[in-house]
Amino acid sequence: MSGKVSERLNRLLVMVPYLAREEGAGVDELCREFGITEPELMHDLDTLRMCGVPDYTPADLMDYWIEGGRVHVMMADYFARPLNMTRQEALSLFVAGSALVRSGVFEEKGPLNSALAKIELLLTAETKEELEKVISHIEVEMRAYEGNMREIIDEGLEKGMNLELDYWTFSRDEMTSREVEPLSLVCSQGFWYLLGWCHLSEDLRLFRLDRIASVRLTDNPCQERVRQSFDIPTVVGEYSPGRKAHQVRLIFEGKQGRRITEQWPAAQVSENADGTISVELRTRNLAWLETYLLRFGGRVRVEGPKELKKMLAKKAGELLESYS
């Protein structure tokens, strides 16, 4: 990962608990404490809006506001208090964190590595040996797309220049060429994704790096208005939502249901004999899905849960009433 992006991630790791205090923190104080300029701070805070906890819906992502020269955050309570973890949670954190550090996502001497060292003190030699095998495997998976392609994407991110992609679109099963304004890289499920503004779609898109056939750096600069005003896609990645999660079952007409995997890689998709697409996924928050499914109109059928059916029917009725 490019140094600039890596530095920002490390700053955010320290900055969030700092901002989560009731009184927040002053803009000048933050710039002085972290050795950055005010524009760099604003860029960091915009990145903060992409961070949160699963489901990674708007209800789970952090946000901030500035009042009287002081920065305040909301939806950050989870990060403001010390964690009480079970043994399994601590081991999972150790494995994931170690893989991120070794893959260059976080600094070797940064705050994450310091936290991991504390967990390591509690591990037996046998446990550390077992975990080492898992960490090495994850590290290989995360580095799988390094090389020339990643270097070009990193250069586009650093210089703020558009990229030209030859990309295979899973939802339509076709290869297209498009110009993209790169915004950030995301690693999920062992895959790297490029988040960017797509000029072909005139919208934000996630591009999985293993579906990019080729990438070229253009001479066209990214538009600052796009970099400052974008909204993070609803969800990215797979997680363990727990027992309270809803098991969602959907039936789409045609192949449009495959599009949901671009935003929810954990969704299970299968094609039926009648040409429809079945999609299954788990989520604790149905509100984002209610809004997402409205765009498909009568081309999607909710098989479950009943709660989602009622939410969609109510929302559709309210929309019809407002237009009547």
Q: What can you see in these coordinates?
A:
By secondary structure, this protein is an alpha+beta fold. It has 4 domains: 78 residues, Arc Repressor Mutant, subunit A, CATH 1.10.10; 56 residues, no CATH class; 82 residues, Roll (SH3 type barrels); 78 residues, 2-Layer Sandwich (Alpha-Beta Plaits), CATH 3.30.70. 40% of the residues lie in helices and 26% in strands. It has 11 helices and 12 strands. The strands form 3 sheets. A 5-stranded antiparallel sheet has the order 7-6-5-4-8, with helices on one face. A 4-stranded antiparallel sheet has the order 10-11-9-12, covered by helices on one side. A hairpin with a 2-residue loop joins strand 2 and strand 3. Helix 5 packs across helix 6, helix 5 packs across helix 7 and helix 10 crosses helix 11. About 4% of the residues have low confidence.
What's the gist of this structure?
The chain has 324 residues and is α+β, with helices and mostly antiparallel strands. Helices cover 40% and strands 26% of the residues. Helix 10 crosses helix 11.
Q: Runs with pLDDT <50, length 5+? A: 228-241
- Order of strands across the biggest sheet? 7-6-5-4-8
Structural class: alpha+beta
Taking the sheet with the most strands, its summary is:
5 strands, antiparallel
Number of separate helices: 11
Q: Briefly note the CATH topology name of the largest domain.
A: SH3 type barrels
Q: Quote the average pLDDT.
A: 77
What's the alpha carbon Rg, rounded to whole Å? 21 Å
**SSE ordering:** HEHHEEHHHHHEEEEEHEEEHEH
